[in-house]
Amino acid sequence: MVRPGVWQPxxxxxxxxxxxxxxxxxxxxxxxxxxxxxxxxxxxxxxxxAQMYAxxxxxxxxxxxxxxxxxxxxxxxxxxxxxxALEATVMDRRWQLVLDCMDxxxxxxxxxxxxxxxxxxxxxxxxxxxVARTVALYGQASGRVAGGKLRAALDSSPLWxxxxxxxxxxxxxxxxxxxVGVLARQQGCGLAEGTQVLASRAGVPExxxxxxxxxxxxxxxxxxxLPQALGMVLGAVGRVEALAAELAGGTDPGVxxxxxxxxxxxxxxxxxxxxxxxxxxxxVARDRRISVEDPQMRHGRKTKSQRVDGYKRHVLTDLETxxxxxxxxxxxxxxxxQVAAQIQADLDAQGVTLGELSIxxxxxxxSLVRDRADDLAIFCKAFVVRNGPxxxxxxxxxxxxxxxxxxxxSVTMPFVPGGKVQFPAEVCAACPLRAQxxxxxxxxxxxIHPDEPLLAELRQRQLTPQGRAKLRERTAVEHSxxxxxxxxxxxARYLGERKNLFxxxxxxxxxxxxxxxxxxxxAQMAA
Length: 527
Prior knowledge:
The chain has 527 residues and is an alpha+beta fold. Helix content is 47%, strand content 12%. The chain contains 22 helices and 13 strands. Helix 2 runs parallel beside helix 6 (93-99), helix 4 crosses helix 7 (111-123) and helix 9 packs antiparallel against helix 13 (253-269).
């Protein structure tokens, strides 16, 4: 395929385009993209996008990547699928206005071209570059000079996975059914008919059904039903493996992946009981797989009362501009702090340094805080310190320079960050304040956080009106998350962490373009 050249659609609006733009009342981003597409996708940025394509001397000239990138942005803005996007290019004049295909009878690109372009963006990390390009364009539109320290806030929201969540029996049935389906195609059979024949050949005709538990048709109120079903499906795993070996299809990637998924579910959910019989594990295994279609989805919680099956999306918002320069996606069972590497990579790619960071307590253990520069100010509501009716830790004086901890009775002990201070039992026994401090026969102990100076600073700051006002600034990132959720929804569009990261990044692009579009025009700024 020949490397694409620069896409140069007209800059000035034609008479027809002006009439269409005049009639767009609500979705104003269409009009803004038409008027500024040449600025967003300038020659330099188009040259970067062209690097995704091999430079071959012969071949069919590809669709301009800038045009495909615009279609990708419009998909995020409207929530259109690939098929709906192609339909819109010939049926919706707003799409035609942006993509320079006004009144065309055929779509300017095929569905496969759009899918391949998305895969290229992800493989070359240019979806990250697209976010950075919108941040740079804001500087051009507003006249702000790049540089300085970024004042930002970071928060997350749940993103339910696109894969089907199933219990152990149905997970195993789903994985084995996929294996049998691959084997059926290898034999040249139709999927439905071949799956039924091979499932019967394996001695488990129930695998041909979409839900194994429904096909078993057991009385699940009967305590004996679950052990019976579990024994049957565990035996089916071995029989399907034997069938794959018999048909010489065990090396097919689909067969390998399906059998590996079945074995993973067995290992995580099934244990051998005292009598030697297999039974379901009590509790949830660590990092438990919950979906066959999306192996990266996980059970997790945003709060104690809010469970999520899938992922968490993380958004870093510039408090000065409302732009989103960095985003991240993690499995739902991973602590929020684990997204720090993704956020830092986005900031490093833009050459941006944090000056202030407003977060909630879930991010306090992240590398953004732990490895922060001396001039990075952290704003966060401190952990509540409790000890019932007795002295809390804040009643003890901490001398961080000397590494000394002094109790309310003026007894001093050395401490190290991350360690525990144990006051001598005989000293506490003779202390007149013992009843107010501890009931332990070993004496009072105080745990020192690895970043105790920061926690002390946070507690002191939130006691002042100015400190509480700074904490309220974090609401800006909640607004950004609400905007992203409005366009993306609460359920993931794609399977897998990386594709969903791409989706969140293009939502950040849409957010940033809205911010840029709200900027006053140069003539208004001059006035």
